[in-house]
């Protein structure tokens, strides 16, 4: 069995075994073992990738290809570059942490873990696919379990949030599918057979007119899941209603499919379309960054603060991608990774606070650091990392993005960059205010003095997520070099 | 004509033999023996279906009135599997009828006669054979719709169905007579050679098409559908929605791709508009339904709209996608109707609200329902996704991107109402939920077959490839 297919097979096998779980304990253990194996595989993949890259210069390594629907030239094609490898690692960390954080789920636990792992199998499949059809199939597999996860185990207006999320994302995939057909039926523009294979299509010069029509469709199709303004509205309500582990996966992983898809499909296969449309979408993504940041300031609920912050920080990913240069792209990918980890940390922490205090209202929380020192300390560190403090992953990402964006010689881009940079200040305001308000100060509610400390599984979950944040922050060079090498073929398509 | 050429009618002869055996059984058995009529019929139909998988020669008999090839034969076998699942799902309901009303044999005979009619329609080489098949398909179903005569709704549905069918029949035969007037022939091949675009031929086509559009419930010929489905027994509604409609779609494809090939510029525009209208009408009305039968009726109208997308690519790809989609649709819809029937039989409940909290009491049935509905909605990795995706591919291959876009938007709308049922079953909690009940063995088998079909038909690509390889006759 090849090293990449296992990333789909292990979750599927885990789900099949889970189906026979008889009680909560069995469900937990099976999920934990399955996802721990997945995590170990992703660590192994990183090292295997580095080793393979030393001898293999192909765009994608560990490639495998099997014919699926011969007459339509649909293949099960897989392969990874550095970008997919880091995304796979991110996903496996967050899913494993999610299993720990969901340890206490007692309503239909088996079904919860099954949905969670089906979702992750979709995400893994998406990141390893090099065939548009396979990629699209995995994309939809990743989206649908979210409906059940939010609808059954969520809180607040969960049914509406789940429905809104599902319909908006499936609507986006509808737009995307038309774009995919456009690419497919133009994949023989230079002669040859029609193909869904991304690497094959990248060799073809799709006519400019077709690129200009299909780029916005593919871009919007993916960017909706990346919370592009004004299609972000599904995201805050979805975040807020989802159970903790699902919020983590949602913001930490699922939304990353957007940026990844934009980069891997829209920009790579339709570079001329990207050049034509980049300014238009830059304005939208910049608006999203600012709107998300100000939206976060206005919120009273911790989850909503984080949800709007995600709109802002993921807007930054799209913004950087649309700058169409190496440094900004490097930043975009590190930002995806960093945001995934940090937002998952935030949601996990919010879930822990909510699980103890039964409130997420900022005004009702105060002085938690004294009662919950471990959770409080991680909360403060996460906050500081989120607002871009050096030494953490957020700083590396934002530095790359803004330096890259400012490298652009055009005045329009520079002015837009200056506007977007101001979001850092706004981020600092809401993060510091939130952390200060809920962690510092006097303990206003005496009931809170009895709150239980963090349990072992909560600590494991948090530490798992915190380690890569620090590693990336302290030693960004290795990751950066790895990503830059993989960005090169994309850049060549644009020049 | 020799024996060998008569064997081209193997499926028809087999089915006819089953019907005759059932008639003989009915005449010579006493009341107690009649209880075994269901397993008897099921075994015979299973044998006929299995024989259907054996290779068959291609050719025509009766001077071209009847013809068959691998694609037509495969489709007949697919319909046979569908009816087999349907009868498995109906078995327990029929058993009760055996004791109370002694009417199960006539149910079986009528269903199988109607299936025989669809076989003739599929294999028709001229309009006479086609028309005989059409009538043979329709008339038994009219009786079946009114099967529960003691129920006012069922009798009313019977009347509605027979009136609309008569109208459709009239329209079809009038269309055929106009086409005959312009070409002087009723043979498909001969007509295809002579037919040209003229006012009379267009008028003939429109009347003919209207008749088939009634059967497929295409907008604006759909108005009878929801009332008839609601009034008819569930398994008859299921037959109408799956078998009768599936057959009509494939027959429409055959005539459009062969007889009416010269009229492509005309009918492609008609199909384009009707596809959009049907998808929207089906979807928007389905949104408002509470009764599961009406809900599935409108959902199946919308599905018919999707199928039309495949017709726009008049080639091997188009034919493959249509046949493949119909095969997949048969499994998906039978799964959904089967669960509705099981629930209705156990609790007499048919409304979406009644399903609230159903997963917590009956997880397995809920799972089958979810599989079926997600397949109908086109969610991967279920068969329905592949079916729809390939239909879009067929339409996009001819540059109908806007229509594909409208199609995928409609698929999203349809997802909303399928999710309403899933919401009721999975998301909602209800202390008065339908209590746990054990499905009867026949029903269980029927549902398992449908579920396996939903899971396998999509992922297992050789099925699609096989259909593609035998669809080159167009």
Offer a few descriptive terms:
heterodimer, A: 495 residues, mainly alpha, two-stranded antiparallel sheet, 2 strands, 75% helix, B: 474 residues, NADH dehydrogenase activity (chain A)
- Domain count of chain B: the total is 1
Major sheet description of chain B: 2 strands, antiparallel
If you average the pLDDT of chain B, what whole number results? 89
Q: Average pLDDT of chain A, to the nearest integer?
A: 86
For the record, give the distance between the C-alpha atoms at the N and C termini of chain B, rounded to a whole number.
Answer: 27 Å
Compute the gyration radius of chain A: what is it? 21 Å
Please give the oligomerization state of what you see.
Answer: heterodimer
Spatial separation of the terminal alpha carbons of chain A: 38 Å
Strand content of chain A: under 5%
- Class by helix and strand content of chain A? mainly alpha
Low-pLDDT residue intervals, each spanning 5 or more residues of chain B: none
Spans of chain A of at least 5 consecutive residues whose pLDDT stays below 50 are: none
**What is the topology, as strand order, of the major beta sheet of chain A?**
1-2
The number of distinct β-strands of chain B equals: 2
Question: How much beta of chain B, percentage-wise?
Answer: under 5%
Measured as a percent range, the helix fraction of chain B is: over 70%
- Helix-strand pattern of chain A: HHEEHHHHHHHHHHHHHHHHHH
Question: How many β strands of chain A by DSSP?
Answer: 2
What's the number of helices of chain A?
Answer: 20
H/E element order of chain B: HHHEEHHHHHHHHHHHHHHHHH
């Amino acid at each position: 069995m090849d090293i990449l297919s296992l990333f789909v097979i292990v979750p599927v096998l885990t789900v099949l075994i889970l189906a026979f779980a008889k009680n909560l304990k069995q469900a937990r253990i099976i999920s934990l073992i399955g996802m721990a194996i997945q995590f170990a595989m992703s660590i192994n993949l990183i090292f295997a990738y580095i080793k393979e890259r030393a001898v293999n210069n192909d765009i994608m390594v560990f490639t495998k290809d099997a014919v699926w629907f011969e007459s339509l030239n649909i293949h099960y094609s897989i392969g990874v570059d550095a970008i997919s490898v880091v995304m796979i690692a991110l996903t496996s960390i967050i899913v494993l942490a999610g299993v720990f954080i969901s340890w206490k789920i007692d309503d239909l636990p088996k079904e919860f873990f099954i949905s969670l792992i089906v979702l992750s199998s979709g995400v893994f499949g998406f990141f390893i696919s090099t065939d548009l059809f396979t990629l699209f199939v995995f994309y939809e597999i990743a989206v649908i379990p979210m409906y059940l996860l939010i609808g059954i185990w969520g809180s607040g207006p969960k049914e509406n949030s789940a429905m809104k999320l599902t319909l908006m994302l499936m609507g986006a995939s509808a737009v995307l599918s038309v774009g995919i057909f456009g690419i497919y039926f133009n994949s023989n523009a230079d002669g040859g057979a029609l193909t869904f294979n991304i690497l094959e299509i990248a060799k073809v010069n799709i006519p400019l007119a077709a690129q200009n029509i299909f780029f916005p469709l593919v871009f919007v199709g993916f960017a909706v899941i990346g919370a592009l303004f004004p299609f972000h509205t599904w995201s805050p309500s979805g975040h807020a209603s989802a159970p903790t582990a699902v919020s983590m996966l949602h913001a930490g992983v699922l939304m990353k499919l957007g940026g990844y898809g934009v980069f891997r499909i829209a920009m790579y296969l339709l570079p001329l379309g990207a050049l034509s449309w980049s300014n238009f979408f830059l304005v939208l993504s910049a608006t999203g960054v600012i709107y998300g940041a100000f939206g976060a300031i206005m919120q009273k609920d911790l989850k909503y603060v984080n949800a709007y912050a995600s709109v802002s920080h993921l807007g930054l990913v799209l913004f950087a991608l649309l700058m169409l240069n190496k440094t900004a792209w490097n930043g975009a990918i590190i930002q995806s990774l960093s945001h995934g980890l940090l937002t998952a940390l935030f949601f996990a922490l919010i879930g822990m606070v909510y699980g103890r205090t039964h409130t997420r209202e900022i005004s009702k929380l105060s002085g938690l650091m004294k009662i919950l020192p471990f959770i409080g300390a991680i909360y403060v560190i996460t906050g500081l990392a989120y607002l871009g403090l050096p030494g953490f992953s957020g700083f590396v990402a934002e530095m790359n993005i803004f330096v890259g964006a400012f490298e652009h010689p055009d005045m329009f881009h520079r002015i837009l960059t200056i506007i977007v940079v101001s979001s850092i200040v706004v981020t600092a305001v809401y993060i510091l205010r939130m952390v200060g308000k809920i962690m510092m100060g006097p303990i206003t509610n005496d009931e809170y003095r009895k709150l239980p400390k963090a349990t072992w599984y909560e600590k494991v979950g948090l530490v798992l997520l915190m380690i890569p944040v620090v590693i990336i922050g302290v030693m960004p060079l290795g990751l950066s070099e790895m990503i830059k090498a993989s960005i090169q073929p994309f850049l060549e398509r644009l020049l | 004509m020799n024996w060998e050429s008569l064997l081209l009618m193997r499926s028809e002869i087999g089915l006819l033999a089953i019907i005759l055996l059932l008639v003989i059984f009915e005449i010579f058995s006493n009341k107690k023996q009649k209880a075994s009529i269901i397993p008897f019929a099921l075994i015979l139909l299973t044998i006929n279906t299995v024989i259907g998988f054996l290779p068959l020669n291609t050719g025509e008999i009766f001077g071209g009135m009847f013809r068959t090839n691998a694609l037509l034969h495969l489709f007949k076998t697919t319909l046979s599997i569908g009816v087999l699942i349907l009868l498995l799902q109906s078995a327990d309901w029929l058993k009760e009828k055996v004791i109370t009303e002694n009417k199960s044999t006539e149910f079986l005979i009528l269903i199988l006669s109607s299936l025989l009619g669809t076989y003739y329609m599929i294999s028709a080489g001229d309009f006479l054979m086609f028309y005989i098949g059409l009538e043979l398909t329709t008339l038994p179903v009219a009786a079946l719709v009114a099967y529960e005569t003691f129920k006012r709704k069922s009798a009313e549905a019977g009347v509605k169905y027979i009136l609309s069918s008569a109208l459709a029949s009239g329209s079809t035969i009038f269309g055929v007579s106009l086409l005959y007037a312009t070409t002087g022939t009723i043979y498909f091949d001969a007509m295809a050679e002579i037919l040209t675009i003229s006012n009379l031929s267009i008028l003939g086509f429109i009347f003919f098409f209207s008749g088939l559009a009634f059967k497929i419930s295409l907008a604006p010929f759909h108005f009878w559908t929801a009332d008839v489905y609601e009034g008819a027994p569930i398994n008859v509604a299921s037959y109408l929605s799956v078998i009768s409609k599936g057959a009509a779609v494939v027959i429409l494809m055959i005539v459009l791709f062969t007889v009416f090939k010269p009229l492509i510029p005309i009918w492609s525009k008609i199909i384009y508009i009707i596809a959009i209208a049907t998808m929207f009408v089906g979807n928007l009305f389905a949104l408002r339904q509470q009764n599961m039968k009406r809900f599935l009726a409108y959902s199946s109208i919308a599905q018919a709209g999707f199928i039309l997308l495949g017709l726009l690519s008049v080639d091997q790809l188009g034919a493959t996608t249509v046949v493949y989609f119909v095969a997949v649709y048969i499994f998906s819809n039978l799964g959904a109707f089967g669960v509705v029937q099981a629930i209705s039989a156990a609790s007499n409940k048919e409304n979406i609200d009644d399903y609230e909290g159903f997963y917590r009491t009956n997880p397995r049935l809920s799972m089958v329902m979810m599989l079926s509905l997600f397949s109908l909605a086109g969610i991967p990795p279920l068969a329905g996704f592949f079916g729809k995706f390939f239909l879009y591919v067929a339409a996009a291959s001819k540059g109908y991107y806007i229509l594909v876009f409208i199609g995928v938007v409609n698929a999203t709308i349809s997802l909303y109402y399928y999710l309403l049922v899933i919401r009721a079953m999975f998301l909602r909690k209800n202390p008065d939920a339908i209590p746990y009940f054990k499905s009867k063995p026949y029903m269980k088998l029927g549902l398992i077959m449908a579920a396996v079909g939903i899971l396998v038909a999509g992922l297992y690509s050789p099925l699609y490839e096989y259909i593609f390889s035998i669809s080159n006759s167009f």
